[in-house]
Write a structure and sequence with these properties.
The complex is a heterotrimer of chains A (504), B (362) and C (363). Chain B has helices spanning 15-24, 33-40, 44-67, 74-116, 123-138, 142-154, 161-166, 183-193, 203-206, 213-241, 244-249, 253-258, 270-299, 305-322, 326-356. Chain B is mainly alpha-helical and 362 residues long. Chain B has a single domain, classed as Amino acid/polyamine transporter I, CATH 1.20.1740.10. The longest helix of chain B is centred in the first third of the chain and has 43 residues, at 74-116. Chain C has 11 helices and 14 strands. In chain C, the strands form 3 sheets. An 8-stranded mixed β-sheet of chain C has the order 4-3-2-6-7-8-9-10, with helices on both faces. Chain C is of the alpha/beta class and 363 residues long. Classes of the chains: A alpha+beta (504), B mainly alpha (362), C alpha/beta (363). Chains in contact: A-B, A-C, B-C. Chain B: Keywords: Germination, Membrane, Transmembrane, Transmembrane helix, Transport.
């Protein structure tokens, strides 16, 4: 009849059960839902998902004590005296029982009475997960190789074990509607600006998604701008990096079933810093950081400059280089653009294929792909040898940044620049640079501009962005992230007797 | 003064330095030397100093006008003093003036590209590319434009190092003797040098967007001092570098100077110079357009600014494609120079006098 | 959803349009004929003959072949189009490194070509400009026999370490158009085995080649004109009926001009720091008496040589040193016409101050 104004669906996409017996009926459809009765008269029932619980606890701590009871148990509250496990919850609430069953608890109830249920939490979350993670993806020669694994409790243990202060607060939320993943926001009370915590919490709570598979997917869901290839949070597997950013006043988000921790708010230059920078002397570390930055710029622009110069601006080449370049391009039938695109796509194909090859075949095929294909294309005069060097170097240097997501962004950015250079030459490259700058200055990470402290300029930040200073200079937090307290520690000058000409 | 701009759209005061300086350095820097020697010859760098000082006075007048206006910018000043209709009409005239200046810069830059770098490429392709870029930047709002102004001063400042290379070729006798010309000659040079400093009058429109006006005025004066200093050093280096006779023949002296630089891996540095000049020119284009759009928006509130932007850009594109004959570019140049001079040296002092007698409307 | 789609369609249209038109006007580097050396000559009927040397890298992988193209055109602007009719690759003038003027063309006036140089933005300003005692065609052909395109280097290293004063197109144009100076270029000549040789400088008056200075005069000229000339000079000195030879190599020179306005007199103070490379045996450098005597001998000889040089310049009414410009910078009432009317009789006195740094053994 009348069209009812379409109401907003309530946020439950699952079917709603009306009573507990419905829950138990539905659960019986699964083959891993078991109901056992320890007593012969079948009065007391124990139901559980046998794939979720720790069967050894059931066998050792619950059933023997139940079976030892000679008198029959009348009330559920008597269970508390009999079973030696703490935390028995006696409830009637539908939602609590449902959640408890799916969290790996056993439900104990009387078959006749349907108003009281006892829940015992004996879940075994680490079944089927790895024990350790030695951070192969964020490798550092010196430094602890401790990484997060997929279990939330272990991850939180790693952090709290490292940072033993009472200021460390974990706030837990449950987000997915079907998977009910637990997500924890970690921050230091009294240091972190509460705005960031509130923003993160608000975004997570308003999220409406059925299953999230990994923390990095969550990071995209709560980020400020999803149409950009640049990551707006740092995702890391290393514990020392997460702890370092906590101490600096940033917020760390850890979720269950994911071995990555997400750190925010960040600025662009932090994507180039490695925890190893703090373990090396400051000159060495600064040099490596500058090489990383140079590597990233080289990786984006090298091939597009090649295309632009050879296609439009040959006047720029010094005279002595003119000969070798022309000779190496002498028999190539394609214009430089096609050469470059051909090689770039080959290298990307190699990379994608290499990621999926089984380990034993992978090595051999990698050698074949790299050396043979490269050599053969030059011999067959499909590309020039100078270009091969440039493309290989550019491909390598895209991985100098320690964060994987950023190196992907760099990989992608190369292509628009190549196309711009092919059509408009050097001018196209500069227009692309302007686009990039205009885009980067609009990005924000948890409300903080991404290009801080370069633009908007904040005093004291520029030096630290490009260079790693001595640890004694890191005694203050960066003030432009507006933490609640600035001083981390006060370095004490050494009291050694001084050397030098003035003291002889 | 109260203003109806929300705080989260405002920018910090030190950015006024970059805004003013970046709008002043436009395409005139590349070709002004051969114009200013028409009057005072090799002493013309003194006339740039003189103009710089006059610009400070004009800037002070500008600030006084803004203080007396109700919303802190020129548009509300017009509507206060001249009433709604005539004030609105004046706002539209201002918008057309700004759009014309922006078109002039756009046209000249594409001319330079065609002449120096790419020969034989039709100009509509560059117009298209630049239009897309300008659209992206201006549609991001005032903060995005300020970011481009910031980077448009920082990144090209490495080009100043090239001046050091050029001092190698200096010949001091070209600069002497001092004070050889009369006041009339200096006056002619000053008139030719004045278009170098056009651009800061857009501060009349975007001033409400700057936080903390007291600190900002200090940065504004610093910007004008820095521009003056920059122009004087470029002029002195040019005069040391070229003899006067040669300078008269050159249409683009700065670029010809840069041509001589040779690095080990890069001959012909002027390509990089011209391309980096895009970064210098882009804030000029964007800020003028933004000011024009804001003027129109305040007069006709119903229209969406993005459509106005698209309209302006379409006009630019059509101008470049259809009216590319050389007589039109000369016409545009003359129009720009005259209207700029009247605006800065005639209209602003007039408004200043009016503002002295006006009571502040709150 | 609709706005997104509209934007995407527009983007796609834009890209297609540009890509279609955009790939047709490229200048891909291995499909060009890049000219390295260009020579100008004048034919009998007043037309210009141009000779261009183009390296051909792609024909053989070992060395490069050098092609030369000649063309006769009525005016300079038609060179590139006419030459392109000979080649399979478009001619590009942007990388020209040496421009050579043949003798008869230089002597009849090069104003038109120079005007074109100053306007054409594609030509670099660091290119070398030279004139030849023969015609440009012969010189370039002789050069082609040497199978290399290093004429620019030949000129440049002679400027940096030998006796030519440093010059390139930029300095040439400054002197050409500036008031108070006349332009000068290095001269090339062919020796008896038909090889190209650098031979002094040639001075232009207005736009015609007027004077050719020999190497000794050029050495003196470069002492006056350029600051770090490292030229070697030889002095023949008669002492007691014996001919002695002193050679030295200069290290740094500094020239100061004094203009006496009232009496209209010009005085040059020249300070030379030299390294002695060959001295007569009777002198011993450890004794101050010998050193000062040697200094006096050299200074006197240099002063005489410079006075002779200025006499020649004044006689021919050319002014490559730029005396007019120097006087203009010191005298407010300088006028070009009146100055050059009296130029031939202008008294120029020279005062040389020599400093011996060390005596090297360079031969």
């Amino acid at each position: 009849m009348f069209r009812k104004k379409r109401q907003r669906q309530t946020k439950n996409y699952e079917t709603v059960e009306k009573s507990i017996s419905d829950i138990l009926e539905k659960a019986k459809k699964s083959s891993d839902f078991t109901t056992i009765s320890p007593f012969e008269d079948n009065s007391l029932q124990i139901s559980f998902y046998k794939t979720l619980i720790d069967a050894s606890i059931l066998k050792e701590s619950i059933l023997p004590y139940l079976k030892k009871e000679t008198t029959a148990i009348i009330q559920l509250s008597e269970l508390k005296k009999v079973i030696p496990i703490e935390g028995i919850n006696i409830t009637n609430d539908l939602a609590v029982v449902d959640k408890g069953l799916h969290d790996g608890a056993v439900v104990i109830y009387f078959r006749e009475k349907n108003n009281e249920f006892a829940l015992l939490d004996i879940n075994y979350p680490r079944l089927g997960q790895r024990e350790t993670n030695d951070t192969q993806n964020e490798f550092s020669v010196i430094g602890p190789k401790v990484g997060f694994i997929e279990d939330l409790t272990t991850n939180l243990h790693l952090i709290r074990n490292h940072l033993n202060t009472s200021d460390l607060i974990f706030e837990e939320l449950v987000i997915d509607t079907r998977a009910r993943t637990k997500v924890t926001i970690a921050y230091l009370d009294g240091v972190t600006n509460p705005e960031y915590v509130n923003t993160a919490k608000q975004r997570l709570e308003k999220l409406d998604i059925d299953v999230s598979f990994d923390n990095t997917q969550l990071e995209q869901l709560i980020s400020d701008d999803t149409s950009t290839p640049f990551p707006l949070f740092i995702s890391t597997e290393r514990v020392d990096r997460a702890v370092g950013s906590l101490v600096n006043g940033q917020v760390v988000i850890i979720s269950d079933k994911s071995s990555y921790a997400v750190i925010g708010p960040v600025n662009l230059m932090e994507f180039f810093s490695n925890p190893e920078d703090f373990y090396l002397p400051s000159i060495v570390a600064s040099f490596f950081k500058l090489i990383r930055i140079f590597g990233m710029i080289f990786s984006i622009f090298a091939t597009s400059f090649y295309v632009a110069i050879l296609t439009f601006h040959f006047e720029v080449i010094p005279k002595d280089l003119l000969g070798p370049i022309i000779i190496s391009r002498a028999n190539v039938p394609f214009p430089p653009v096609i050469e470059v695109l051909f090689l770039e796509i080959t290298i990307d194909l190699l990379r994608e294929a290499g990621a999926r090859l089984p380990a034993k075949i992978g090595q051999t095929l990698g050698i074949v792909g790299g050396i043979v294909i490269g050599q053969a294309t030059v011999e067959a005069a499909l590309t020039s040898s100078i270009l091969l060097i440039i493309v290989a170097l550019a491909a390598l240097s895209s991985f100098t940044t320690p964060i994987y997501k950023m190196s992907n962004a760099v990989r992608l950015l190369r292509y628009p620049f190549i196309l711009l250079a092919a059509i408009w030459g050097g001018f196209g490259i500069y227009v692309g640079v302007l686009f990039l700058i205009a885009h980067l200055t609009r990005l924000k990470s948890l409300g903080v501009p991404l290009l801080l402290p370069l633009y908007p300029y904040r005093k004291g930040g520029v030096m630290k962005s490009f260079v790693t200073l001595n640890t004694s200079k890191h005694d203050k937090r960066p003030w432009y992230l507006r933490p609640l307290s600035l001083k981390k520690f006060s370095p004490v000058s050494d009291k050694d007797p001084k050397d030098g000409l003035n003291h002889e | 003064m109260n203003s109806n701009v929300k705080v989260n759209k405002m920018v910090s005061p030190y950015l006024l330095f970059f805004l003013i300086h970046s709008t002043q350095t436009g395409v005139m820097v590349l070709s002004f030397q051969s114009d200013i020697i028409k009057g005072a010859g090799h002493n013309a760098w003194l006339s740039i100093f003189a103009i710089g000082i006059i610009m400070h006075v004009i800037f002070l007048m500008l600030l006084a006008i803004l203080k007396k206006s109700s919303a802190g910018d020129l548009l509300s000043f017009h509507t206060d003093v001249f009433g709604k209709f005539f004030g609105g009409f004046l706002n539209v005239v201002i918008a057309i003036y700004f759009a014309m200046l922006s078109l002039y810069v756009f046209h000249t830059y594409i001319d330079i590209l065609q002449l120096w770098v790419f020969d034989g490429i039709r100009s509509w392709e560059f117009s298209l590319l630049l239009i897309v870029l300008v659209f992206y930047i201006v549609s991001g709002g005032f903060r995005s434009i300020t970011a481009i102004a910031f980077w448009g001063v920082i990144i090209p400042s490495f080009l100043l190092l090239t001046l050091v290379y050029l001092v190698n070729f200096a010949e001091t006798t070209y600069l002497l003797p001092l004070m050889q010309f009369g006041m009339n000659d200096f006056y002619i040079s000053m008139k030719e040098a004045a278009p170098l400093f056009f651009g800061f009058e857009t501060a009349l429109i975007y001033f409400p967007f700057i936080k903390d006006r007291k600190k900002a005025t200090k940065w504004g004066h610093l910007a004008i001092i820095y521009s003056t200093f920059l122009y004087v050093s470029i002029t002195i280096v040019t005069f040391l570098f070229f003899s006067q006779g040669k300078l008269e023949h050159l249409p683009w002296p700065t670029l010809t100077m840069i041509k001589i630089i040779k690095l080990p891996f890069l001959e012909r540095f002027e390509f990089i110079f011209i391309f980096t000049w895009l970064l210098v020119v882009m804030p000029v284009l964007c800020i003028y357009l933004w000011s024009a759009i804001r003027s129109i928006k305040s007069t006709i509130p119903k229209v969406k600014p993005t459509y106005v932007l698209i309209g302006f850009l379409a006009v630019f594109y059509l101008f470049n494609s259809l009216l590319f004959e050389i007589k039109y570019s000369y016409l545009l140049e003359k129009m720009v120079s005259y209207s700029g001079l009247t605006f800065i040296f005639g209209y602003i002092p007039l408004l200043f006098l009016i503002s002295i007698f006006k009571k502040k409307v709150n | 959803m609709k706005k997104w789609k509209k934007q995407q369609v527009l983007c796609l249209l834009l890209v297609c349009m540009v890509v279609l038109f955009g790939c047709s006007r490229t200048r891909i580097i291995d499909k060009l004929g890049i000219v390295h050396v260009f020579g100008f000559d004048q034919a009998e009927n007043g037309e210009l003959i141009g000779t261009a040397l183009i390296p051909d890298y792609t024909s053989s992988k070992e060395g490069g072949q050098i092609k030369s193209i000649e063309e006769q055109v009525p005016t300079g602007g038609l060179f590139a189009p006419r030459m392109s009719t000979h080649t399979s690759t478009p001619i590009e003038l942007a990388k020209i490194r040496v421009v050579l003027f043949g003798k008869n063309y230089a002597e009849s006036g090069i104003q038109h070509m120079i005007d074109r140089f100053i306007i054409n933005p594609q030509i670099g300003t660091q290119l070398q400009i030279a004139a030849s005692t023969h015609s440009a065609k012969e010189t370039l052909n002789a050069f082609k026999q040497e199978k290399s395109l290093t004429l620019a280097e030949r000129l440049q290293h002679n400027m940096e370490r030998q006796y030519l004063p440093y010059t390139n197109l930029h300095y040439f144009l400054n002197h050409f158009y500036g008031e108070g100076t006349d332009a000068y270029v290095p001269m090339l000549t062919l020796d008896d085995q038909n090889r190209v040789k650098v031979d002094g400088i040639g001075v232009f008056k207005e736009d015609q080649l007027k004077l050719h200075l020999n190497p000794d005069q050029t050495t003196l000229f470069s002492y006056v004109k350029s600051e770090s000339s490292q030229a070697t000079y030889r002095i023949q000195h008669r002492e007691d009926e014996q001919k002695e030879i002193i050679t030295f190599r200069s290290f740094k020179t500094k020239s100061n001009w004094d203009w006496n306005q009232k009496e209209k007199q010009l005085k040059l103070h020249l300070q030379l720091s030299v390294t002695l490379t060959q001295i007569p045996d009777r002198f011993d450098l450890e004794k101050t008496k010998d050193t000062s005597e040697m200094e006096k001998i050299v200074e006197k000889d240099l002063e005489k040589g410079l006075a002779d040089l200025f006499a020649i310049l004044q006689e021919n009414e050319v002014d490559p040193v730029g005396i007019g410009n120097i006087v203009r910078s010191q005298d407010r009432s300088w006028e070009e016409e009146t100055f050059y009317k009296d130029y031939a009789s202008l008294p120029i006195s020279v005062d040389v101050n020599l400093k011996i740094i060390h005596s090297g053994l360079e031969g």
